[in-house]
Specification:
The protein is mainly β. It folds into 4 domains: 65-174, Immunoglobulins (Immunoglobulin-like); 182-288, CalX-beta domain (Immunoglobulin-like, Sandwich), CATH 2.60.40.2030; 296-409, CalX-beta domain (Immunoglobulin-like, Sandwich); 419-508. Helices cover 1% and strands 44% of the residues. It has one helix spanning 161-164; strands at residues 28-35, 38-45, 65-67, 74-75, 79-86, 94-99, 110-111, 117-119, 128-134, 144-154, 167-174, 182-185, 189-191, 199-207, 215-223, 236-241, 247-254, 264-274, 277-280, 282-288, 296-299, 302-304, 310-319, 327-335, 353-355, 361-369, 378-386, 402-409, 419-421, 437-444, 452-462, 478-480, 489-495, 500-508. The strands form 9 sheets. A 5-stranded mixed β-sheet has the order 4-11-10-6-8, with no helix packed on it. The protein has a 5-stranded mixed β-sheet with strand order 13-20-18-15-16, with no helix packed on it. The radius of gyration is 59 Å and the shape is rod-shaped. It starts with 27 loop residues before the first strand and ends with a strand.
Length: 509
């Protein structure tokens, strides 16, 4: 007779049984125990009459669901089933509802579930089947997975949602749809041509897998910062990739120019694929500038100042080679023998001056003051420097600035000025003796080249009639230098009874 010993609920876990057995001392023997529809083998070793055998029973609390393994893999459209049973007797009915889990790549891969299963305290250990169908679709998915979530409800605290919900069954599906390769296009870059020979920019279209059939796709160019049929040739066509290949190439021709410019781009679009799908159908082609940045030329005038008022001197600044970008520079004046404020008007810009790329040159004016002073030719300079970050040109030698000379030509003569004397008349004395003073005014025709005009102390008097003339000479210093706009004059005094046509000979000191 076998009896229960040890700890437990106090309930017998098997029916009492008589096990007649005889054997030689030291031999082993065994027998099976049925525990809640499970079979356990128990063994023992005995000597003589009476011995004790031991068996360890593990209670899988909370793990009371057992699902069978699904035969894998499955074909699309195939109906499948798996079985479910409870491993622990519930105290109340347990309801199972199969469904797809939320989210993830496995959603939507199977449907048409058989419905709700109910397990009772009586049939809990009996297997029940869940039926489902693998979705038949036309998507090329390759080897993929379907997952079914088993959700349970029960009033038995051992079968609460906390323990059981989310038990999942997953199986693999063999895709019966042909896998279509995907297409991507690259973004090439290349230098434009300057030698008169065009260059082609290669666009590479790549398949995600080697083509089993001929793959074709249409392509077409579109302008971006590059101008169509100016920087590149508009083109379109159909690219064919033969079976066994994973790439195809087509060319777009770039045009030549000699313009300094920024790099430019255009786009290419793929469309209407055959035996493939477009994953990335937009490519950009970059045309890299290979023309040097231009320098500039500065043309300064050499001209006369004028006798009065202001004279305009015009300076021309031009690009030395073609460019597509406007230039910008700063300008100021620098004194030399000519001095700002007296010989010319100073110039200093606080904002850059612009050389338009469309014309290639620009001009600006300087003001020179006129005078009548006899002097040497004078010079000053204009200082030009590239505007920071927006010059788009360089100065010879990569200098930070350069000074360009301006020459003011003297236009005043150094010849001796003419002296004129005014006509005078007086009334002579009535008596036989005495003097009468006659005053003559001398004037210079223009400013003298020296600091003063000296008059020599001699003169000639032509009497109006042949009478004796007494003349008293009187010397007056000199005539100071004046500008032409203010003629000089000085009086000469003679005494006579009757005198006319007095002439003096000037001397320039």
């Amino acid at each position: 007779m076998l009896e229960r010993t040890g700890t437990g609920s106090g309930q017998p876990f098997f029916a009492a049984a008589q096990l007649p057995y005889s054997s030689t001392a030291g031999n082993t023997f065994g027998f099976d125990l049925a525990i809640d529809n499970y079979t356990m083998n128990v063994g023992g070793i005995g000597n003589g009459a009476g011995f004790t055998g031991y068996a360890l029973i593990i209670d899988e609390y909370g793990l009371g669901i057992n699902t069978s393994t699904v035969s894998q893999p499955l074909e699309e459209g195939e109906s499948i089933f798996y079985t479910v049973r409870l491993t622990r007797r519930p105290t109340a009915n347990v309801t199972l509802t199969p469904s797809q889990p939320f989210g993830g790549s496995t959603v939507g891969q199977c449907d048409n579930f058989s419905g709700t299963l109910t397990f009772t305290p009586t049939n809990y250990a009996s297997e029940q089947a869940v039926l489902a169908t693998v979705v038949q679709d036309t998507a090329a998915e390759g080897f993929h997975v379907c997952t079914i979530s088993n959700n349970y409800t029960s009033t038995d605290p051992n079968y609460t949602e906390n323990f059981l919900n989310g038990r999942e069954v997953s199986f693999f599906i063999v895709d019966d749809d042909e896998i279509v390769p995907s297409l991507t296009i690259n973004d090439p870059a290349g230098y434009e041509c300057t030698d008169g020979y065009s260059r082609d920019l290669p666009f590479v279209v790549t398949l995600s897998s080697i083509a089993s059939n001929t793959v074709s796709v249409d392509w077409e160019t579109f302008p971006d910062t590059a101008v169509e049929n100016v920087d590149y040739d508009y083109s379109s066509g159909t690219l064919n990739i033969p079976p066994g290949n994973s790439q195809g190439v087509f060319m777009v021709e770039m045009r030549c120019d000699d313009l300094f410019e920024r790099s430019e781009s255009f786009s290419v679009s793929l469309s209407d694929p055959v035996n493939a799908a477009i994953a990335d159908g937009g490519g950009f082609g970059e045309i890299i500038n290979d023309d040097p940045m231009p320098s500039i030329t500065v043309t300064t005038p050499t001209q006369t100042e004028g006798d009065s008022g202001n004279t305009t001197f015009t300076v021309t600044v031009a690009f030395a080679s073609p460019t597509e970008l406007d230039g910008a520079f700063m300008v100021s004046t620098v004194d030399s023998t000519a001095v700002a404020g007296s010989d010319y008007q100073a110039l200093s810009t606080f904002s850059p001056l612009t050389i338009p790329a469309s014309t290639g040159s620009m001009t600006f004016d300087l003001t020179v003051f006129g005078d009548t002073t006899v002097e040497s030719d004078e010079t000053f300079a204009i200082r030009i420097s590239p505007a920071a970050d927006e010059a788009n040109f360089y100065l010879p030698g990569d200098a930070a600035y350069l000074d360009y000379p301006m020459t003011i030509l003297n236009d005043d003569s150094a010849s001796v000025p003419a002296i004129s004397v005014s006509d005078q008349s007086i009334t002579e004395c009535d008596g036989p003796t005495g003097n009468t003073t006659m005053t003559f005014t001398l004037s210079l025709s223009k400013a003298a080249p020296g600091p003063r005009v000296s008059l020599l102390p001699r003169y000639r008097v032509r009497p109006s009639r042949s009478t004796t003339t007494n003349i008293t000479r009187r010397r007056y210093g000199s005539i100071p230098e004046k500008r032409l706009s203010r003629l000089s004059s000085t009086p000469i005094v003679t005494t006579s009874r009757s005198e006319r046509n007095v002439q003096r000979e000037p001397h320039v000191a």
